[in-house]
Amino acid sequence: xxxxxxxxxxxxxxxxxxxxxxxxxxxxxxxxxxxxxxxxxxxxxxxxxxxxxxxxxxxxxxxxxxxxxxxxxxxxxxxxxxxxxxxxxxxxxxxxxxxxxxxxxxxxxxxxxxxxxxxxxxxxxxxxxxxxxxxxxxxxxxxxxxxxxxxxxxxxxxxxxxxxxxxxxxxxxxxxxxxxxxxxxxxxxxxxxxxxxxxxxxxxxxxxxxxxxxxxxxxxxxxxxxxxxxxxxxxxxxxxxxxxxxxxxxxxxxxxxxxxxxxxxxxxxxxxxxxxxxxxxxxxx
Amino acid sequence: xxxxxxxxxxxxxxxxxxxxxxxxxxxxxxxxxxxxxxxxxxxxxxxxxxxxxxxxxxxxxxxxxxxxxxxxxxxxxxxxxxxxxxxxxxxxxxxxxxxxxxxxxxxxxxxxxxxxxxxxxxxxxxxxxxxxxxxxxxxxxxxxxxxxxxxxxxxxxxxxxxxxxxxxxxxxxxxxxxxxxxxxxxxxxxxxxxxxxxxxxxxxxxxxxxxxxxxxxxxxxxxxxxxxxxxxxxxxxxxxxxxxxxxxxxxxxxxxxxxxxxxxxxxxxxxxxxxxxxx
Amino acid sequence: xxxxxxxxxxxxxxxxxxxxxxxxxxxxxxxxxxxxxxxxxxxxxxxxxxxxxxxxxxxxxxxxxxxxxxxxxxxxxxxxxxxxxxxxxxxxxxxxxxxxxxxxxxxxxxxxxxxxxxxxxxxxxxxxxxxxxxxxxxxxxxxxxxxxxxxxxxxxxxxxxxxxxxxxxxxxxxxxxxxxxxxxxxxxxxxxxxxxxxxxxxxxxxxxxxxxxxxxxxxxxxxxxxxxxxxxxxxxxxxxxxxxxxxxxxxxxxxxxxxxxxxxxxxxxxxxxxxxxxxxxxxxxxxxxxxxxxxxxxxxxxxxxxxxxxxxxxxxxxxxxxxx
Lengths: 285, 279, 324
Known about the structure:
Chain A has 285 residues and is mainly α. Chain A has helices at 3-44, 47-51, 65-96, 100-114, 117-132, 137-161, 165-173, 178-206, 233-241, 246-280. Chain A has 2 domains: 3-44; 49-280, MetI-like fold (Orthogonal Bundle), CATH 1.10.3720. Helix content of chain A is 76%, strand content 0%. The N and C termini of chain A lie far apart (52 Å). In chain B, the strands form 2 sheets. Chain B has a 6-stranded mixed β-sheet with strand order 6-7-8-3-9-10, with helices on both faces. Chain B has a 4-stranded antiparallel β-sheet with strand order 2-1-4-5, with helices on one face. The two termini of chain B are 23 Å apart. Chain C has 324 residues and is mainly α. Chain C has 2 domains: 14-53; 82-322, MetI-like fold, CATH 1.10.3720. A two-stranded antiparallel sheet of chain C has the order 2-3. The longest helix of chain C has 38 residues, at 285-322. The chains are: A mainly alpha (285), B alpha/beta (279), C mainly alpha (324). Chains A and C meet through helix 1, helix 3, helix 4, helix 5 and helix 6 of A and helix 2, helix 4, helix 5, helix 6 and helix 7 of C.
């Protein structure tokens, strides 16, 4: 065997092995994060974390009950703002859109999806915080809701497009009007996928910190209303992690574990639902 | 050109078949056509898919449209209930009359209620068997539970499917076999009591036994509605149809009673196709 | 006798419009159209507010804003250069690390791994993309920063200290830490999009190369990757836009020092990080407007890069459909 061929053989085996190393490295990062967070978070997690308010710096103990409830409030309101807009917009893109205008909407939605979340925060700040003269859960929810719109819109469109054209023709041939066809056949057929997409979208905005920093701000106590500064888990993790107190770091780990588990759980559940749905409906897919 | 007037059509007697209905042998001269197309041209963008099609469909008769694939027979069928309008950049010139009313002046929902359609590939909705059949009546305003149940049973019986599915009406339509799914689609189309039933190669994906069941079904349905069936299977046309039209390259080459078309066709192209010498 | 009808406008005229309005189709179309249009409205308002909000700073500093490096809120002097520099440097470090790693992993998943393993790994990697960025920041601040400060940076300083990038005291927090955590965060995007692009390469292309006596690596490197290059470059652009705009994780490890240093060990600042830290504390119109102008810069930067990325993705799918 010539030297050149031997070199080629070696290069082949070496480079292919390196690609395997890269893949293992990428996957192991997930387990590294999960493991480290589970180890530190589990030790720090106790009943107080879920039931108590944060203690002032220097004092031991306390929890993040207000941040858990605050996050739930903000994410719920954001979903109420973003999901319907995204859903109906997606219906338009898939079912009514022509060539030109839909293309523009699609393109702009993808661009909006790529706008840094902190910039979305600035937008919510200018349209809610500045006129109302206060930081509020409402402003935070608006920022997250705006982020949810392009995500759900594009996903809804995608899942509606996957519904075979023969379904639409079948319904129209029975004398259904177009909107009845959409409401009674197309959307139900795609519902599982759309719901999955929504879960993934909500999981994504639930972990966002940057757009909340100057919209819902933070709060060491229970928030007294939608127009008041409100604590949230991501912002709480951020502020506790960069603070110089050992006990706050402990709390940050606990909060990090809770947040990560919620987000990963939503992701795994969504994918599980979707894969089950596909095998159950293979009849038409 | 090749289109036939009423008088021509009544000359030939539909040939007798063992399973055909009692009314089949009666002279048709007095009966006006249920549907007729007059000088119909069809375009996909700049491409003309149908040239000047004029053709009558007779009340309570089965008309088969045959021809090689790509000849325009399905396109023609899809204009009869205007389902072609779901495809972009299509254009129709000419007239189609349903009971001497121009279908392009009728609301599509009303029109399609009167003209049912069964597609080449069975397309049950991802719903239960009962909900599939009830779909048409429901979108057309039937609300009462007992009414819906009644129409579901009646339609499934008419489609000869009732005995096979009566115990699993709440199960998904996808649990049925291919032939059963296609008969479900027929039942679904029948549930709105259409005056005309269009079938676009309804048996192309089915085995011979399922095909025979559907052909039997068409005979039974004939006295209730006017049937138009597109098929690439000449034996099927010969078995079920009273009239047959032969399409080639977007033109209606010949239209006559099935007997004439299959025994003494007037045109060379028809004869070549019928005898398998085509192409 | 001839009635012409058009499928796009089956029933033209005002009467037909009203009929469709009554049967609901037109209402449904208009309502969903209104919802779809909101994305245009949002982007329009966003651009308008960013321009209006930064008016004072833009008039005061003009183009000098981008080339001066003095950021002094007390003296009301605002120059954006340290933040632009930090944003570019951290993103560059991230790409340098993430692109080879991700491409390698994508090649393994698309070309070598059996389908089941490939799908399982891709699922895990996509989960990685779902991890909130504050979690990455939390991990980085307590593991990556001490590791860099105590081991990696002293080692690099000893071995590669002749380069200006690896000189100076080890802080831990700084450009290198931010670049590394960004690299980890953008890997999933590059891997999953590149894997799809590699899957899109026709089988015949590979077989042609192998039939000519190429090794599997040569076929991959010389034929498959070039064939998928548009999709891969698109994924890198998308990842770059992510890295430029990433806020929280970077804020936690960048060191928050508005100065320009050559050494990657040194603490710095990025546009997103300064927004996160100073927006709520900004007093005075000029200070606030300067921050909003930074937001505008970040917006335009990511906009352009995303637009390019999407163009590439569109081009790939066009080309893909041309060769089924």
